[in-house]
Amino acid sequence: MKSACRYKKRVSTVNAWVVLCILIVVSAFCQNAYSSSNNFLWEVRSSAGTVYLLGSIHFLKKELYPLNKRIEKAFDDSDILVVEANISDITTVDIGPFVEKAFYADKDTLANHISSKTYELVISEAGRLGLPLELIYKQKPWFLALTLSALELMHLGFDPGLGIDVYFLSRAQGRKEILELESVNYQIELLSGFSDEEQEIFLYSTMMNANIMRKDIDSILEAWKNGDTGGIQSMLEKTMQVDADMTSIAEKMFYSRNRNMASKIEKFLKTEKTYFVVVGAGHLVGKSGIVEILKTRGYHIEQL
Predict the structure, then answer these.
(1) CA separation for the pair 25, 238 (Å, rounded)
(2) 31 vs 233: CA distance, rounded Å
(3) What is the pLDDT of residues 260-276, one digit of tens each?
(4) Can you name the residues that pair with 277 across neighbouring β-strands?
(5) Which pLDDT band holds residue 213 (cuts at 50, 70, 90)?
(6) ω into 66 cis (within 30 of 0)
(7) Three-state SS for 141?
(8) How does strand 41-45 pair with strand 300-303?
């Protein structure tokens, strides 16, 4: 494990990107958005309780703050904050197994696991982002995809420390109970569990979508701020055309997770408490999104 240990000092910072990049990676799979409203915020009611669903963007600029008063009021009125993964407590990640899942050991390298076409694109993207080859050639494709996405956003002036989930985790400290729908470890297991073929598709699609992201990210953020789910859907549809082989990845990363998260949210609705749930915005829209799943199960839902 000598080669993996060389990167151990970097992992404490980089592993947080596993969660912070989820929106950018999986939002490309959104389908059939809802009509525009005021915020990317929904109120879900049952006979017992209430859940507020807020679509998160994991990288933001300070200009997006302060958030809309409706969002802040929903948080203030809630008893419990729920996030996909509590990235404020990154110490829960077991670094040793993470390094093994994210980096190749011994003499094995990225070039042995992806095609020459994808590898050439990696070299080009890394050069454009100013990322030295010695920092990427040991990364496995799933992790490199997140690394490149994060660097792209930071080059565009976005800050992971200003993400919606980070903001509310900070506000909830010492004030509200914090629960997770998943966990950082779960998401690491999910991504690292991709086959070599799936990892390459994931990496290739991420790089091909970089140009779309550079052109549309400001428009996407503006649409999010205005609750314009249709506008976001229109822009995200562009990324869906990059690779036709992402069906299995979409099912693992998006559709099955939506079903699981919706079932957990249903349990919250059976209590008499009010929950403020923050998930990647891409999980909320479309026929397979959490909002539609809960709607078909008979819950009253209103976009605020």
Answers:
(1) 13
(2) 7
(3) 999 999 999 999 999 99
(4) 53, 82
(5) confident
(6) yes
(7) helix
(8) antiparallel
